[in-house]
Structures are given as structure tokens and as C-alpha cells.
Amino acid sequence: MYTFQSQVRYSELDSDMRLSIASIVDYFQDCSTFHSEELGVGIEYLERVGMLWVMSYWQIVIDRYPKLCEKITVGTFPYEFKGFLGYRNFFMEDESGEKIVRANSIWTLMDVRAGRPARPTQEMVEAYRLEEKLDMDYEPRKIRFEQAGERHPAFFVGKQHLDSNHHVNNGQYIHMAQDYLPEGFEIGQMRAEYKQSALLNDCIVPEAFVEQDRVGVSLCDEAGEPYAVVEFRRKARG
User: Fold this and answer.
1) Which of 66, 85, 139, 144 is least surrounded by Cβ atoms within 10 Å, i.e. has the fewest?
2) Vertex 175: Cα angle to 57 and 135 (nearest 5)
3) Hey, what's the signal peptide range on this chain (predicted)?
């Protein structure tokens, strides 16, 4: 398990003065990067062996949103390798040690030169210590909607959307999808399924699916094939 401590910054807040869902994703991505770097199987190692971990799926469950200046602990650990897939949990704890955000993620290891999935190297398998998966309700990976969605105006991928792999960063799709949430919709769970990588100047056509307590956004190419599908579920009122 890898953990690091932080304090919620003003720049990480949403309009309700709480840590935003996009900032939560950023924290978790940073945590997994720190973990891999510490183990010696990070970015430079992956470049050397010609491989790349690509996000395939997120499920993030939010019990409570951290507030401005709150001290938090962010943690992560892998719990399974299956073929070319890696399964990793994340969590966020408050100062009392209570888990206030929990997440599951699935990653695909790609052979960059061959352009196809690849199994982890022996160095990766030995570096990552597998642990027992978090206690949470695990949703299916596939995100489906029962009714037709509403198409919204298309837009183009800009440089600000890209990461070091020159693809749209997985957190950016969540930023994009949030624009289609109804006013006052409080997110209790977010799922994201990643289908293909969008590149600079690609056209993205959003299609929104709105149900009573569930909103989905399919971010598609011009042919209607999704780059990513994001689902938000309304937080239960307690």
C-alpha cells in the first residue's frame, strides 16, 4: 500500500467549496504515479520497456466530500493482475482515519510499439504487492442506458486536455461530462468507461442521458463511437 498526506487547497474546490470530483480523480492518479515511481516501475521504466498503462474504467464512491483546508490521506494498492489488466483500489481518509472516498479502477497494459495489450513484465509483478480489495459495492464495468440520449454541440480537443502521452487525460473526460449535469445534482458515485483515446484537434460529440437520479454522458467521435462514457449517480440524502 502507498499513501501520502495532503491538505485541500482552494484551487481544488468546486462551487460548493468542497473537493471537486475532478480533483479527487487527480489525487488518485497522482497517488498511483507516486506508488509506481517509488517501486521503480514508473514512467521512465515504462518508456524503457516500451509499455504504457491506459485507464479502462473508474468507479468512485463518495461518502463525504473533503472541505477547504481539511487534512486528508490518499492511498492506493493493486489487488489483482489478470492477463493484460491491472486492478487497483484507491481511498481517501480524513484525520480520524475514516474512509470518506473509495474507488476501484481497471488499467490495460499496452505494448506501445506493437499497438496491442501486453502482459506485465516479471519486474512489474514482483514490484507490486497485491492486497485484499477494498470493502465496497463493485459495479459492472459496462455502462448502459435504457433510453436515447440528447446530442449537444460538438467541440474540439485542445492542448489543455492532453497528458504526457499526448492523449486526452482520463480526468479531462470527467471535466467535460460534468458540463451536462442538471443544476444542483450532487454526485454520490461516478463511473467512467474508456473506449478509445482522443487526440489533439479530434472532434468530440457529447450525448447526454438524463434519468431521475442518474446522468450519463457519452463523449463520441464524429462517427458516433464513444471515446469515453461517464455516469454520475445522485448522492442519497441522509
Assistant:
1) 144
2) 40
3) none
